[in-house]
Amino acid sequence: MKKHLKKLLTLFVVVCLSAGLSACTSKSQEGNTTTGTTQNTVQTSQDSVAPSATITLDREYYVEWWRTNQEGITWEKDGPVSQWLVERTGVGMYSPLVIWESGKGYSSKLQTRAATGDLPDIFMPRDGIEKTLIEDGMIWDISEYLQVYAPNVWSRIPESIWDVVRTSDPSGKGGIYYIPNVQQFNGFASFIRKDWLDEAGLGIPTTQAEYVDALRAFKKRGADVLPTIGRENGRWMDHLFFMYDVAMYEGHPCFDVYDGQVTYSAVTPNMKEAITFIRGLYNEGLLDNETFLNKANTLWEKVKTNRVGSWFHIPNGLDGMALDDLLKVEPKADVVVLPRIAAPGYEGYITVKQIWGPYWAFGKKDEKTFIASLKMLDWLANLANEEEIRYGVQGLHYNLVDGKKVKNVDFDTNKIEKQVGFGAITTPKEYIESKSIAVNDPAQKEYIINSARQAIRAVETAEIDRSRPVAEDGLPAMVFDGFPDIASRKLYQEYMTKIIIGDLPVEAFDEFVKKWNETGGEEVTKRVREWYTKIKK
Question: Quick check: pTM over 0.85?
Answer without folding.
Answer: no
